[in-house]
Amino acid sequence: MASKVHQVTVWARGVVQDKEGRDIANGLARAAGQEGKFTQSFDNYVDLPDRVNVPLRKYARISDEEIEERYEYENLHPEVVIVADATIVKGIDVLRGMEKGGTLVVATDRRPEDILKFIPNRDLLGKIVCVDAKAICGDRTVDFSGSEGGVDSVGIGQGISAPILGALARGSELVKLDHLDAVVKNKDALHKGHEQAVVKTLN
Amino acid sequence: MFKIPKGKEVPLGCVTPAPVGEQPMMITGNWREFRPLLEPEKCDLCMNCIVFCPDACFQLDDAEEKVVLNEKYCKGCNICINECAPGALTAAYELDFDDGVVRLDKPF
Amino acid sequence: MAKEMMLSGCASSAQAAKMAKVEVISSYPIRPYTAIMMELSKMVANGELDAEFVHGEGEHGQLSIVLGAAAAGARALTGSSGVGVTYAFENYSPIAGGRIPLQMMIADRALDPPGDFGSEHTDAMSCRDQGWLMGWAETPQEAFDNCLINYRVGEDHRVLLPQFVCQDGYFVSHIPGPVSLPEQSQVDEFLPPYNLPHPLDPKRPVSHGPQIRPDQGTIMDIQRAQAMLDAPAVIREAIDDYNRIFGRKYAPFVEEYMTDDAEIAFFLMGAHTMTARHAVRHLRAKGVKIGLVKLRFVRPWPTEEVAQALSKFKAVGVVETSTSYGGAMRGGNLLHEVRASLYELPQRPLTTSFMAGLGGEMVSLEDFYHMTEVLSKAVREGKTKKTVYWVGFEAED
Amino acid sequence: MAAAIKTQNLAPVKLIRNVPKEEYYLPGHRTCAGCGPALQYKLVAKAAGPNTIFLGPTGCMYVANASYLCTPYAVPWMHTQITNGGAVASGIEAAYKVLLRKGKREGEFPNIIVMAGDGGSVDIGLQAMSAMMYRGHDALFICYDNEAYANTGIQTSPTTPYGGNTTFTPPGSAIPEGKTLFPKDPPQLVIGAHPAVKYVATASIAYPVDLINKVRKALNVVGPTFLHIHCPCPKGWGFDEAKTVEVARLAIETGMWNMYEWDNGEYRYQFKPKKYKPVREYLKLQNRFAHLSDAHIAKLQAFVDAKVKAKPVPVEAAVPKAN
Questions:
Q1: Which of A124, C119, D200, D303 has the greatest number of CB atoms lying within 10 Å of its CB?
Q2: What is the ipTM score, two decimals?
């Protein structure tokens, strides 16, 4: 039996957050790789080509052993869900497929309670992390070089993905801040996101 | 002979019936970060919002006295706000409203 | 009363299309199929045939035009040869997948390089896996008949598939043979009017061909696969009706000639079957126990009929007029399918492939006698020396 | 032989409040928020009305509209390959001619409209489009121009402006301006060589009443017609999706886009500014031009200056009119 593959799903807005969403998945996978984990990160193929504002999914997977089923379309059972634009929680069941006790990270200026009221299946959550990423570094880098399997020529974590990754490190054991620090470009925003994240434990 | 799993069906030759009024299998209201909000007293029925909406989300009501937004499909591009001649439309953050978006399992 | 005429395959095909009352025709010139369109354009010009004749801007355009026409609800016909067939390739899958049952007549021709206008089956055979019905005619008469039979089968709502109706370029397409032209009333009895279940009509709006998810792709493939599974029964019905109405004696899939007590047999399709028939007859007169099996449909491939027909022989020579460079048999395409058909049999005949008639080279009686020697030797020795013989070009047998 | 079957006379619209209310391009499609091509589709469908068949060569207006078994078309629609919109339209037109003639289909001859992107019209689709026009089929071919292959992730097309940054023409140290070529001119391609074509026009989503009237004029003509419609693309051009119409308007005000009709040999211009704004004002709204130096902008300005000053060729002299 292969060891557990930890699935992380990122929800972001098409085009305006396509690269930032991908940066979150790539940044997480690359940072986890720094501590010797087996990782992969990929775009949801069916969500592409992405259109301005469309909700789209980026995926990361982390495992202690080699990931055997690499060629899949979706993360069916995410244990961490990251929402790069908070309004997505209103229109999508972002926790779909999550087992009880999962973590939700939301980029928002609202409090965890204000977000939870939009999530009918919130009892699945063990933890919610909110971070006002836009206030820390709200830039949304739009660049197509890394899309469709291309090689990103800008670098990871220049904009809003940096504070979101910092918040993730506060709310999850899957990745450590030090390792993110080695990967993310905007280190100041990364650390601010880590510091300013509001973590609320549920259940 | 073959067993087609639910949710994977495709009609013969991939020919589908034309939708009537709207395409309810592709609800796009959840694309919206900011919704256009109308101040009716400022509206002079210039019709720009109706004509310039790429998603045909604005219509006149039956009495043809005011414009009505179809929130189920509005993607929040806000062209309407940019084009509104009397400035009767403003952008309102979607999380400030409890309703107005159809919640979906998947993006489509 | 039926009318007897001497017609080339091109001319007989055009006559069949006229009697099928095709409504939209798209043309583009390439030898040797061109005369089909020359004949049809005359019929349209002089009012014999009420159809729209559209000059395509190339074979890709031709197929696109008839796709639009057939999707709108008109019986449509096009045709081509050689590199024209392959230039249109993009369209074959969308037409079959969209279940638009139009017809394409192919007078086959070798592919380039360089320009060789001789007959070869490779052009159409390269397109055989797209979900089209496909078969070859041996004579101008069979070319005529196959047009009507294929329209009937392809347009049947249990099938709804487009049709490659093929004939050997020059040999069948250009050399006149006797053709019995039936009465229009006979054709009308056999072939009902075109009735697409989902035409483009503003009174009944539909969308043709929206995108699907990758996990729905298999379903589209299954639809085409199912149509091919359902087609044989429809073909049998159509052939029975055809034989009854027109007084012919076609077998639906494989025709046997002098196979009673035969030990060896040729397996082939199209024009060269005729020469092979005469070779078999002469060889029989000399006491050689030889027969012939002719294939009428390459798609759907009649697996059981082929297995049943060939199982009784000790050795079978598959006469190939197509190429499959680097394929499992290093020869043509037919032997792959013949061997696959025989695989489940407890007793399999020896099989070998004769590459013959490529690039349009003629295949003579002598060639068939030579092939017979190879097969007889294989029977004597209990094995074939080679899987593939390039007839006339082997340094030693 | 075939009698003209079309008798329709779609009336022009005077004011924006007379724009027909009925929608035939419905809400519920996966085009970008603020999509220019989607807006023109909506307006064209309104103008054409219910007796219409749309053909959708591959491109955004196929893939984004007809995603995952959902389509927004209330009238018949068919996907065509990116290569062959004009040819499939020709076949449909031929079918309707014969079906109506034989009494197998009843009613008015339908409006047959090909909705092709710039790639599907003047690049890979050029041969089929030109043949449809040459043969004189009664169909309207629309090139909705968003100046790139947008559906595949913004690659250069023949109508991408000089200096455009696309994923196939990225600016770099060796090629600082990105796209080095100047664009094809689709309406002039059509006007210059197709005697059967009687009506060609350019239009823009910035002027919807004008667009609707040009569509109706084109559909009232028996024979092939062509519209070239400017449709800004927020994703491909890199501007705020609320500004789609504003960018379209600015294109006309700077001379980057010219509005005219060619009606049986005669040119008529619309919305021609008395004084053109500098192209820089148009460029600065769009990320695809962010890398351009002053020298590049001057080169583009010179191209635009020459274009807006040029007198149209008296086409009657060059191409004889067909009957």
A1: C119
A2: 0.95
